[in-house]
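User: Show me sequence and structure for the first protein, then do the same for the second.

Assistant: Starting with the first protein.
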Amino acid sequence: MKDSKGLKDPKDFKDSRRIKKKVNNLKNNKQKMSRTNFDQLLEAGCHFGHLRRKWNPAMAPYIFMERNGIHIIDLHKTVVKIDEAAEALKQIAKSGKKILFVSTKKQAKDIIAEKATSIGMPYVTERWPGGMLTNFPTIRKAVKKMANIDKLMADGTFSNLSKRELLQITRQRAKLEKNLGSIADLTRLPSALFVVDVLKENIAVREANRLGIPVFAMVDTNSDPNDIDFVIPANDDAKDSIEVVLNACCQAIAEGLEERKAEKADEKAAAEQAEEVAEKPRRTRRARKDEAPAAPKEAEAPKEEAAAAEEAPAAE
């Protein structure tokens, strides 16, 4: 509304501010949309905990209720924790660091292997090699040994060996491949650990804690969350539950890797542009240097013609 002088009413300004605030809030809510939702987790069975007699009291903040002697996990807290863990994993991946996925239980083996391979991260699904983190150089030697066997097989060095020796080497190679094949590309200590079933993988968690490596983990009601940096309270025994949580986390890691690629491409383009800008003055200087000697030559030509004209009458 305008008054007699043609000025807007102050109420209109207030209304427009309120509308802008609402629009901004809606935008922020869209940006902060959670990667999972309550119904999705409920359908996957993430809410089922262990029997009451097996519970760990440290998990009390994440337990919603008890039904038929079984604890029920609060899925609202699980949604929040998944988002926190996913964001942290995204930042680690964006910085170009490796995340080691660990789970040796039957339900999670195939899922871990599939998801970790899809995003190019190392994983351990067989027996956890004791001292893998705290005694990493020794593990690297075993991986190098496996690579050397492959190299010698390709060269044909083993063709002169007897059948028995060759069989022993191939068995040794198969054993190394089974236990360490998935971490062959891990040339340095991982920057984070993602664990399914903290109770079963307690050695891996302890090694990570000793070295100060952050641990992301699916923690059930029978486990201790105090040693975990990013707790995801969820059922770690159901295949669907593990898959839902891993999907959200791996999607975040994939986003981080894509952002890293985009940043690298932008940096490369900026560097090329800077080189071009720096090259322009150099080109102009070279062009001027090339033009400078041509000018005296042009000035010398009339002098030579004049000298030739003078010599001609003298000869006559």
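Switching to the second protein now.
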Amino acid sequence: MAVVRRIRERGKKAAKRREQRRNLDPWPLLTSPHLALLRAPHHPRPQRPLAGTITVATYNVHRWTGLNGRGPSDPARAGFVISELGADLVGLQEVLRPLRGDDPLEALAEALGLHVTFAATRVHKRGQIGNAILSRWPIAGVSMLDLSFTRLEKRVAVAVQLGDGPGRLDVIATHLALGDRTRHRQVQSLLEHERLRETPTLIMGDMNAWRRCPATRALDDELRSHHNEKWPASFPSASPVLSLDRIYARGLRVLDLGVHASRAARRASDHLPVVARVELPLREPRAEASAALDDPSLERDPSWNRRGASTPGSKSAPEGR
């Protein structure tokens, strides 16, 4: 429970910093989808090369409200589950960043020593709701793709670039729509993005794939999935029957995939986390890698609409808070 205590302590400190920023911040809160946070921890986890086998996870935290969504917000509960995963990369959905009080996302990232980015999808009565990515490795670039094809459902995908040159990895976290037709359009937008065809890529999130549909067929056809014949059921967490949460890969090998069904996970959200071990492609020999880095065709893609490595203590984007 030391992780829970650290998350709460970090949250109190973050709340004080945010209150000071709010008193000086002249910008109104944006209600349209936007990037709102890019931050590095003050005390990051011990670094290791972005190579070999890594552990990744996707988790819908249900606004930190637990199994039924009607209880008080308790971010430390889901934070403890995330600490149980021991994952190098985590995609989060339905993350709530309150307009007042502690920021549980920043506190969680700081307590676990992870880099974090957050894209706000919409404004809830309690704050901003959106998708986030937690990463062991520094975030070299971040972008957001607006997938809001109807006025009823605002949806986004947040994407980060890790590493550079031949060792680069793109990670996308998203939460797709409930309607089949809209969900299919969202998947097409993701699959047609030029970055997906350039570098090894992970796509993970709550796909709302409660049955086989054009969206899931497109993902299954275009991306390498996993070794199982069926996706593991992750919803509802108390007795899962639907495989809503998934992890797809391109240019990577998924070694195994399953749900994390600890006692804490069954109570912290209405979804269970889905966890996978992924094998990254071998790096090029040093000489070839040096030559590749000098190749102008490998320059960073201008389609990424925000750049720059995160730095310890970096602030939220002013328009996001």
